[in-house]
Design brief:
Blueprint: E1 5-11, H1 18-24, E2 30-35, H2 42-49, E3 52-55, H3 61-71, E4 76-81, E5 84-86, H4 88-95, E6 107-110, E7 112-116, E8 119-120, E9 129-134, E10 139-142, E11 147-150, E12 157-159, E13 164-166, H5 174-181, H6 185-200, H7 207-224, H8 231-265
Parallel strand pairs: 1-2, 1-4, 2-3, 6-12, 7-13
Antiparallel strand pairs: 4-9, 5-13, 6-9, 7-8, 10-11
Helix pairs in contact: 1-2, 6-8, 7-8
Amino acid sequence: MPLPISVVICCADAEATLPAALASVAWADEVVVVDSGSSDATGEIAREAADRYVVEAWRGYSAQKQFGVSLARNDWVLVLDGDEEVSAALAAELRGLDEAAVAGLDVLTMPRRNHVLGRAVRAWWPDTQTRLIHRGRAEWSNEVLHDARRPSAPGRLRALAGHLEHKRVGAEGVEARWADYFSGARLDARLLDTARQMHGRGRRVSWLGLWLRPWFAFWKFYLLKRGVLDGGFGLLVAQKAMVSTQLKYAALWAVQQEHARDAGSGA
């Protein structure tokens, strides 16, 4: 008997991408859409295709998905964003699962193929995601910028071969596609929160790290991850990784200075 799987899709203002996401999981036992407050046609699209549609104010990356998972009726839940799709290969793999196949497991991982400016990003593959979980056993990681889940014990995790598609559809036109990846507004808004979380977990950066880390990020994505094979597109992806890394560690350095000043003043 096929494994009953609920799909939870968290989204907002996703009218351009949600139809493809919903179509890719039409095979699921249940589909739940959690909308954090859309002003477009997201609600109408979800009500027509999903089994359940809920509006819930944004709680944060992990907390929003945990809320969505709590609404599912099945123990095994596939967690998606509104701009992701399940590929045909992954859908076939998921439909082929049964209780015996997941016995003793908490989390099943899958690779994700990301798209920027309408092109798949070679350098980001495989971008492994922890998306199919047993909601009673998997543990959640509370991240500022992303969400992740982990098994309750080593060995209770298995990798699937089929992949997710990320941002394969959606933004149209140069302005929209440029802003979707190369605009720094969203990154800037989260930098200090990310840096404070890093500092709270004991991360520190020296002047040498400030100099070396951005360059390492560039060469990692350009050479080690073979971005060079994508010509100018691969160069842009590597350059963005370099800039993002520089800004992240600059923010961490600023947080370090703030704590040093507070310690020096006895605050």
